[in-house]
Amino acid sequence: MTAKDTAPILxxxxxxxxxxxMEVLHGIDLDVRSGEVVALLGxxxxxxxxxxxxxxxxxEATAGDMTWFGAPxxxxxxxxxMDAGVGMIHQELKLLPQLSIAENVFVGRYLMxxxxxxxQAMEERAHAGLQRLGLDISPRRLVEGLSTAKQQLIExxxxxxxxxxxxxxxxxxxxLGGEETQxxxxxxxxxxxxxxxxxxxxxxxEEIRQIADRIVVMRDGAKVQEFDSGDVPVxxxxxxxxxxxxxxxxxxxxxxxxxxxLEVRDLCAPARTFSNxxxxxxxxxxxxxxxxxxxxxxxxxxxxxxxxxIASGEVLLDGDVVTPRSPGEAIRKGIVLVPEDRKLQGLVxxxxxxxxxxxxxxxxxxxxxxxxxxxxGQFADVYIRKFGVKGSGRQDAxxxxxxxxxxxxxxxxxxxxxxVVVLDEPTRGIDVGARSSIxxxxxxxAREGVAVIVVSSDLEEVLxxxxxxxxxxQGKQAGILDRKDANDVSVMELATI
Length: 497
Description:
Rossmann fold, alpha/beta, globular, 24 strands, 6-stranded mixed β-sheet, 18 helices, 34% helix
């Protein structure tokens, strides 16, 4: 008997959700069975996260019914859902940086022995979970300072210790490279074999064929299509998501100018996360940086932009040594970083769109040292329109979809008209429609003569947007490939040296 022949462990019927006068879910029906992976797909704003939050007890449905193993199900909060056997891995990391890895894995449900916290048991179980995901790290280590990819693996390990009957995975591979993704997929196959049902949300559509048993597509708060197999062409899925034919994903990459804009010479990090890195980026060039998680890509670009210290080496701009010692110094010299974690490092979520844009452009929005809301609004509205942000200037950034949040981060820095733009995972957790518009922005920058550096764990992406690609492996520079020589095989051969 296959999963399709069994009764659903979770059933949703006519689920609606209304916020004020806006209905964001329009009568959703969904079944999940034991031992199957249901891929829940759709653009940002399609309603996937809202539906997941209802299932996991974070919000209540306005109308409709849910059953769990045939009994009525309406969790009052995430704890109630967890107690029932429903776990969720959020796209937004929710770890506590001042606690150890083991404490984060078991936070809110510490293991006890003789009336005391059993730290040894927690550390052993946490370490075992991390090792299954390929992360060999002490469970006693504080989360603070760990890379986004490692934090994502900890979140996954945390969910896998729940002994849940249903797991909701929201963009679990967004920060992971190919090797880490395959380790996760092997764990998912084991969970399926144990009868766990899985709702899998991802914008990496190439993964779906590998992992999904069924596909449910949402658009504008409605369920628009369902496929009884995961073996569906990516184009077919995308067209169902966006409601139109998709002609292309990556725009034409402009030819760079001959003049070198940025040069990095023998750059080394104090902690040796990278060493002896040298490269140059021409005016109007898109320079990609690829490599597996832990290769030192993010640490490198943070050092180049002054966010992390440099042990030795130089950064040159137009032939002059400018090695920045702080982000502020880099920004003043025309080098800006769009960080990989837009929610923690790129935006103040509780503040408005116009305030976020204004923070990076205070000289432009103030007069005589005074800032007026009228001047701020006028300045921000220009860039909200220019970058196609779907939201009003006074709306909080935290209310936007991931794609629109990323557009705000881009808008606030590009308003400064920088000479070098560094994009670390520019489309992480962003739907296919928003990705396309961000790729267009990247090419517009290149055509304007800006030097662009793109760091991405998505190999198709870095191949699609780059004039040249530098591949890193274990903190070393493994090689630089011209666009005509770069492909999946040549990049991965260097990445695994």
